[in-house]
Design brief:
heterodimer; A: 225 residues; mainly alpha; 11 helices; globular; B: 103 residues
């Protein structure tokens, strides 16, 4: 089996759910920004959380500038995530930059060993089903969404946070991760009334600073699972 | 409509630049151990914040507890039962739809 195939297989369960998230994005975005922009956005931005953030900014009357800022603030997490994954990538600068585009939440979480190291084949491979699911699901949602009826009454807006909750559970490997998650949630929610849309999520990365404190390497006793 | 395409174009360009920055600047150099510790905890921090903000924000800058909270509880329950991720998201949508239908 080609090593990347391992990544493709590892990515399929999350991709099935990504497909559902993508349909919900297509259905929710089409009435706000139109069918073609919805599909093109998923093709070229390829970052669900930023797209949802930009969409909700536009839907609630925000300006184009506010929508871009919200989306990019959410995507600012890809900077540290890209730095984390960088040692696993190969080739010259251009190739590394291209391989770096494979970093999305699901592929990054799948490739992470939870101790700061990344598996290149899992990262690149698991992005492939993610991308196909994201693009096709958005198109189906945008083109067919009007047949579904009211997306709110179907609970489609609950799909996206549920998907991220599922990704999150895979990351809660030990007590330290759990504590970090709880602090991050509290911090983000406390900032919602005060900070610009998108900023609370980025600011919550402060909660990860607990990780700079050294801990004994390979500490199985501290792991929940 | 022009501003819509501008929005999409700038979001795409910005996202590509953000994703490229780490790999291009850092190259193949390994990270210091303390930075690895921080980065290892970024995923739980950012994912939790995304979930919390998305579930409990109503109008911009307003926290609410509404039908989406029921969806999150349903998703959490499905995860505890170790159901596949697709059933997790379906459970969330179903619970949210149910609460909206009866309220």
């Amino acid at each position: 089996m080609h090593p990347v195939q391992r990544g493709i297989r590892a990515g399929i369960p999350a991709a099935v759910a990504t497909f559902a998230v993508a349909i919900s994005f297509g259905v929710l975005a089409r009435p706000v920004i139109g069918t073609v922009p919805t599909i093109v956005m998923s093709l070229v931005v390829y970052a669900g959380s930023a797209q949802f953030a930009a969409l909700s900014t536009i839907a609630t009357g925000g300006t184009a500038g506010a929508a871009i800022a919200a989306g990019l603030l959410i995507n600012a997490r890809f900077l540290p995530m890209g730095i984390a994954a960088a040692p696993a990538l190969r080739g010259g600068r251009l190739r590394r930059a291209v391989e770096g585009q494979a970093v999305v939440d699901a592929s990054w979480a799948i490739a992470s060993d939870g101790r700061g190291r990344f598996d290149r084949d899992l990262l690149l491979g698991s992005t492939i089903p993610q991308a196909l699911a994201w693009w096709s699901g958005t198109a189906i949602g945008a083109l067919g969404g009007s047949l579904l009826g009211d997306p709110q009454s179907l609970g489609l807006d609950a799909i996206f946070p549920a998907f991220f909750l599922a990704l999150l559970v895979g990351e809660l490997r030990d007590r330290r991760a759990l504590a970090t998650a709880l602090i991050a949630a509290g911090l983000a929610l406390a900032l919602v009334p005060r900070a610009p849309t998108g900023a609370p999520v980025v600011a919550a990365s402060v909660a990860a600073l607990g990780g700079v404190v050294r801990r004994p390497r390979d500490d199985p006793a501290g792991r929940l699972r | 409509m022009t501003s819509m395409w501008t929005t999409i174009g700038l979001l795409a360009a910005g996202t590509i630049a953000i994703k490229s920055a780490g790999p291009v600047i850092l190259g193949a150099r390994p990270l210091p151990a303390r930075l690895t510790g921080f980065i290892g905890l970024l995923a739980p921090a950012l994912l939790t914040a995304l979930v919390a903000v998305d579930t409990f924000t109503g109008a911009p800058h307003h926290l609410v507890i509404d039908a989406r909270a029921a969806g999150l509880v349903a998703a959490g329950t499905a995860l505890l039962l170790r159901l596949p991720i697709i059933l997790v998201v379906i459970a969330a949508a179903a619970a949210t739809a149910l609460v909206r239908a009866v309220s």
